Amino acid sequence: MYTFFKQTHSPHSSLSYCSFLLHHCLSHKSPYFLKTVHARFLKLGLNTYTYLGNRIIDLYTEFGHINDALKVFDDISYKNSTSWNICLKGLVKSGQLDNACHMFDEMPVRDVVSWNTLISGYASYGFSSHALELFVEMQSTGVKPSWFTFSILTSLVSSPCHAKQVHGRMIRSGMDLSNVVLGNSLIAMYGKLGLVDYSFDVFFTMKQLDVISWNSLMWACCRADCQELALEQFCYMRAAELLPDQFTCSILMSVCSNLRDLEKGKQVFAFCFKVGFVYNSIVSSAAIDLFSKCNRLEDAVRLFKEHEQWNSALCNSMISCYARHDLGEDALQLFVLTLRKNIMPTEYTVSCLLSSVTIFLPIEVGNQIHALVPKLGFESDTVVVSSLVDMYAKFGFIDDALNIFNEIKTKDLVTWNTIMMGLSYNGKVSVTIDLFKELVREGTPPDQITFAAVLLACNYGNLVDEGIKIFSLMEMEFGIKPEEEHYSYVVEMLCRAGKLKEAIAIVKKMSYGTTLDIWRSILSACAVHGDLQTIEIIATKILERAPKTTLPYLVLAQAYQMRGRWESMVRVRKAMKNRGTKEFTGCSWVGIKNHLYTFESNQLQHYGGKDLYLLLNLLAWEMETEGSLSAINAVDWIKFVMQ
């Protein structure tokens, strides 16, 4: 090949062979050979030819050498629209959106390919609003969108109304909606929004169907929680004599995971063996998720270990599996291994790790994962940021959680709910209510979790009037029907305030059966504020549902003792002993140097407790000498702990 350059004397006669050499560079994926060919082009003066220059730019961008591509672009004497579009595509592909926008503005002619390239770039890097603005600008310039333009837009929609507008715009633009690519995009668009009926409508209007069409429809059913319907579509697909691919099997695995149906999952897994998809990473990832959700951890681990080649999807599924089974240290170890193998984690993986940290690992590990977030480019991802807020809130570092929340530019409802729930659990009652009012002012509609967080704050802060007002607004103003959790918080709040009649009145309004937690709250309040008849009625209700629970016996025994009914008290204590009631033992844990130590009640003596008791005695003696009111209360508390 190199002797050709020495023998040829006519550059024009060499164009076809030059094209062959460039094709050779692509087929062998050799950037070094491309640079060699480019150097000879420069020597022979072929670098100024438009066709050859465009081919070299395309190859350099394919290999990720964008700077070399720009140099070739500058050398081309006559730059046609293809030259500009290829270079624009290379800048977008390399992540240089600012430079791509600058080149886009300098283009003498911008055709539909130019607009599609930049719109696609904005969409792929998460700038959906910019992509939509560019689409509007494209229409104002008179450039007619293509089917590819609309396929990009279908991936950007965020609401049913928006989806229908895009669909309507396709019809007005004269798009052939029977086109298989457009049809598949519409099915996926409606499926993402849970509008499975619309997905079926599009599916039935398509003249030609391929595997992607069926996969998109099954995914739409799965997404809309119509799992059995998704399985039916697979049967119809097989009846149409279409061969499923690895994505089909992955979707079927997800369906079985959502159903928690291990038997059907095994049938899908056996089918994967039959068609040779079992070691495909996409299928294996879905299978690991299936085994994990069906409590078959050993099968998930075995399947993972059978893979010699790891990739992001496979490792992410296994990390999530460990996290789901409360194996935080195993999840963290695998995460470190993936980083060492240059396997990039996803946002979901980091979120799972942060959730594991909050329960099983010390805060230092959470800090280390937090330090990785900006390095991985996830600092703007709402899922990761919400997990960070949740982690710091659960560790008690609520100020750090609030700082992270305040730095978020675009907050979704999950983020708002996470910080409000964290603030409530950390006793920041007024801040929680202020954030709730701010959320409503911004026009973001709250959901059940939002109201649960606010009612919990009102419960902890004894803000009865505020809590009742917010509780009444749920259904009247926001159309959200109260659930068991909301009733529980309100009843407990009223009981703590001594308003037993109001609490019982709210319980009677519940449209479904009262839970044990609500009856326990009322019974605990009755022990202080109630009469004996009410205590006996509620205790009986609890014992009918949970005969071995301790609380009703204890409250009844105390009530009989306070009223001097000694025989009744003895009878209740004897019944409690005969029924073998179970008491839940309190447990605390502390993380020290990557180890988790748990302490149950009466277990302190086993961990050097004598020294701790001596120290508590000294503190009690010193406080008693001070004689202050707060010191006396502290002494009582210490003596209670030492009993």
From TrEMBL:
InterPro entries assigned to the protein according to its UniProt record, in alphabetical order: E_motif, PPR_At4g14850-like_plant, PPR_rpt, TPR-like_helical_dom_sf
Keywords: Repeat
Endpoints of the signal sequence: none
GO BP of this protein: RNA modification
Gene Ontology terms, MF aspect: RNA binding
Ranges: PPR repeats: 80-110, 111-145, 210-244, 311-345, 412-446
Domain of life: Eukaryota
Name of this protein: Pentatricopeptide repeat-containing protein At1g43980, mitochondrial
Native species: Cicer arietinum
Classification of source organism: Eukaryota, Viridiplantae, Streptophyta, Embryophyta, Tracheophyta
